[in-house]
# Entry
Amino acid sequence: MKSLVSIAGFDASSGAGVVRDVDTFFSFGFHGIAVPTCTVVQGPGGVKRVEASSEGLFRDVLRAATTGIAVKGVKIGVLCDESHVRATAGFLARRRGVPVVLDPVFAAKNGVPLITDEARAACIDVLFEKVTVITPNAEEASAITGVKVRTVKAARKAAEKLRSLGPGAVIVKGGHLEGDPVDILFDGREYLLYRKTRFPRLIHGTGCSFSSALACFLAAGYPLTDAFVATQRYLERLFESSYRIDRKGYFYVSSATEAASDTAGECMKIQGAHGRLPQDPGPLRIWR
# Structure
């Protein structure tokens, strides 16, 4: 079985981080390897605090879990401090050619910071150039670029600035935009927009679900545009099957639910969708 690696935080409530990523990997037929950067103290009510893994522990786990493994793709989430960033950059330097998805998680949904200023700067300096695609939400794109991302026009500008920092492509997720959410993919040549309907639930781990599913499609050999479309379709069904584990906290998702499991297989058949876009009246639009 082909293996994918998740380098991200450990959320004991299983809503985000390496647990959410590995759940996704297995549902798409990949073996999941989890390398935690921190332990996140949280439940359905949100994050209480974060304890970063020590530099030595993180490096040892990364080395032990991946030595001798034919890694086919990497998803990166929160990297709490500079040592995590530099160790991850070194790991990627030895894995050239595999798709790498970076979800630049800087803070939890309730605002608790997850990354140091030094780690953020190191991500830009040594990591961005090594990733296939970076997937910030509007707030994260604003924090990195200084562009206030509230509209599609501003999201396009932020995507251009992010692309100039080194990643192969950028997806700015538009859940925080004014009006209906629009996700924007920019590969340096064209823009691909995916217009969505705002989902009426506060779901935990949406960014992790998106980036880990995208990593699966890329590892399966999909071109980025096809992977982008397929990931959107997968997330739509996944969110429909979301559930609560308490009475009033965040909603959760699992790739083990029947709808999500069926959809993973269906979405793997979407390859080639981008080639039909000019005739497709759906939610996709290309800006050149």
